[in-house]
Design a protein that fits this description.
By secondary structure, the protein is mainly β. 13% of the residues lie in helices and 39% in strands. It starts with 6 loop residues before the first strand and ends with a strand.
Amino acid sequence: MIEIGKNNTLTILRDTDPGLFLGDNEENEVLLPNRYVPQEFEIGDNLEVFVYLDNEERLVAVTDQPYIKRDDFAVLRCNDVTKHGAFLDWGMVKELFCPFKEQAFKMKKGGWYLVYCYLDEESNRLVASSKTNRFLDNSELTVKKFDEVDLIVSHPSEIGMNVIVNKKHLGLIFKDDIFQDLSVGDRLKGIVKKIRHNNKLDIALGQIGYRNIEPNAALIMKELEDNSGFLDLTDKSDPELIKDVLQMSKKSFKKAIGSLYKQRLITIKEDGIYLNK
């Protein structure tokens, strides 16, 4: 089966004037236009291609890779807005269409938007939607507490930053757990901190609890080494100062220096932390 909007490994069937015809094991065929034909090939070779509908609504294969594929998320630039909807740059000759009904907020030319790409069953076309939450489902979770997860930053809220978890679920990073600049579309790793009522996911950037001591301790050791073995911080320092210097909470900082102190790697004095020689 040839899948629209995804990479397909297809077999070269024949060479024609418009290009190569490729096929799958179910006798489906698609044209690879001349501009994408490799310099060297043989009938029977396999090629990995991306398949979509061209400007004439014909099924076509290309060797280019788009910025987004079917059933995935990405931040794309809006190239134009017409009476029909918005047209997004996804790295292909034919732009990706986003109907007005699929826009969380009215798109503007030149703007950048986080969207989900899906196959519209009625038109058989690839379509974008900035209403990303409707493609996420927390009714049956595929993650558990302390799991490491892949995150895509979705949109801010009054209490933190919403994130897409493993491209399946919606999660939230509370403001108190954010110690770095985050932008919509950023991809990063996180940890499932807590699963609340109705399967709401609390996410932390980095490991939590006792698992967080070692990475933070290593960070503090590096800061000490980079600052001639001294840091002007103690367990009485202002939380905002600790956040600015180390990008961690005061609670995490205290746990980390406690671990280093027990290992006799540091000395804690009233004026700061000293690296033991």
